[in-house]
Design brief:
The complex is a heterodimer of chains A (140) and B (181). With 140 residues, chain A is of the alpha+beta class. Chain A has a domain at 18-107: Alpha-Beta Complex (Ribosomal Protein L13p, Chain: A). Chain A is built from six helices and five strands, in the order ββαββαααβαα. In chain A, the strands form two sheets. Chain A has a two-stranded parallel ribbon with strand order 1-5. Chain B is α+β, with helices and mostly antiparallel strands and 181 residues long. Among the domains of chain B are: 55-87, no CATH class; 89-170, 30s Ribosomal Protein S18 (Irregular), CATH 4.10.640. Chain B is 29% helix and 9% strand. Chain B contains six helices and three strands; from the N terminus they run αββαααααβ. Chain B has helices spanning 2-20, 62-65, 82-86, 95-98, 111-114, 118-133; strands at residues 34-40, 43-49, 159-161. A two-stranded antiparallel ribbon of chain B has the order 1-2. In chain B, strand 1 and strand 2 form a beta hairpin. The longest helix of chain B has 19 residues, at 2-20. Chain B is extended and about 80 Å long. The chains are: A alpha+beta (140), B alpha+beta (181). At the A-B interface, strand 2, helix 1, helix 2 and helix 6 of A face helix 3, helix 4 and strand 3 of B. Strand 2 (27-29) of chain A pairs parallel with strand 3 of chain B. The structure holds zinc ion (ZN). Residues 80-81, 83-84, 117, 119-120 of chain B line the site of zinc ion. Zinc ion binds at residues 80-81, 83-84, 117, 119-120 of chain B.
């Protein structure tokens, strides 16, 4: 963060932060919601617990993004301080003091797909067809 | 009291349906696309009409768009099906293509109707399921499931996307492959 600035240094606070919105609407691949488990240990004997991704997302919709970013960073002393510069919000509501300093936007990697019932009826009918019914097919 | 009323209502419904619905079995029912009923005076004429398909004008075929890709007629047994010949990279988000292979109740059409090869039928059938699970084809989804993902339970209610590479992950190796290193 602040890598483009000439005064950048890993231990220097350039004032740059990342704001992440709509974390409740994240999409996981395939069966990840019920296959992915998050491990936690209280430190006491028998204190291990595994929480599935959908259970964790029900409890805290920001936690999955937070853990993903935390895991992707190097495990050095700077990690906890860099994590302080990431703001995650479950919805679209962002506090004004954060919002007024936003200067740029990172494009989303995966565009949100269009639903069939949101496409107008005329466009669906006039779309080029690939499959045609055989002669003796009774439409259902 | 309520049970008596319910029973009465169901009885009335049954009698109504059995009287109104007429089941007429004509001989060659399969060769028909539409049954038409006409009534002139006391005569009731029921005729089966083979209608031209609405999709005929919009149909895209590889031999029309790019004839060089289609092999000559010498090897008929190796002729690819129309989906392989087109060579489209279909994803599970392409609902406009996938909805053509689906009945109005959301079921995938069988192979004798789609006329696809085995591999394409498997691929498109899986992608239809993916689109339905991701909630992209809400109007073409079987009625016994909650169509909108937001109304589903537990892990099903969150947004999901799929990778098309996972369709043929379980590849059964050829018998000749086991001698290869
Ligand atoms: Zn094929």
């Amino acid at each position: 963060m602040g890598l483009h600035k000439p005064i950048y240094h890993p231990m220097n606070d350039c004032g740059d932060v990342v704001v992440c919105i709509n974390s409740r609407e994240i999409a996981l691949r395939g069966e990840e919601w019920r296959r992915r488990a998050y491990f936690h240990h209280t430190g006491y004997p028998g204190g291990a617990s595994w929480t599935l991704a959908w259970e964790l997302h029900n409890k805290d919709p920001t936690m999955i993004i937070k853990k993903a970013v935390y895991k992707a960073m190097q495990g050095n002393l700077q990690r906890r301080h860099t994590m302080e510069r990431l703001f995650i919000y479950p919805g679209e509501k962002v506090p004004d003091d954060v919002l007024q300093n936003v200067s740029n936007q990172i494009r989303q990697l995966r565009p949100v797909p269009t639903r069939l019932d949101h496409i107008p009826e005329e466009e669906v009918q006039n779309f080029p067809k690939v499959m045609d019914y055989p002669e003796d097919y009774v439409l259902k | 009291m309520a049970s008596i009323i319910r029973r009465g209502v169901s009885f009335m419904k049954n009698s109504y349906i059995s009287s109104s619905a007429r089941t007429i079995v004509t001989t060659k029912q399969l060769n028909i696309k539409e049954l038409r009923e006409q009534k002139d005076g006391s005569k009731l004429v029921i005729e089966g009409v083979t209608l031209p398909s609405l999709r005929a004008q919009l149909l895209v075929r590889a031999q029309n768009t790019n004839p060089s890709l289609v092999p000559s007629e010498g090897n008929i047994e190796k002729k690819p099906c129309y989906m392989c010949a087109l060579g489209l990279d279909v994803k599970h988000t392409d609902v406009l293509i996938l909805s053509q292979f689906v009945r109005s109740d959301g079921c995938m059409l069988p192979r004798r109707i789609t006329k696809l090869c085995r591999r394409q039928q498997k691929k498109i059938g899986t992608m239809v399921t993916m689109a339905q699970k991701a909630g992209l084809m809400i109007n073409l989804t079987p009625g016994n499931c909650k169509k909108d993902p937001k109304k589903r339970r537990d892990y099903k209610k969150f947004n999901t996307y799929f990778d098309e590479k996972t369709i043929f992950m379980k590849r059964i190796p050829d018998q000749s492959d086991k001698f290869k290193r």
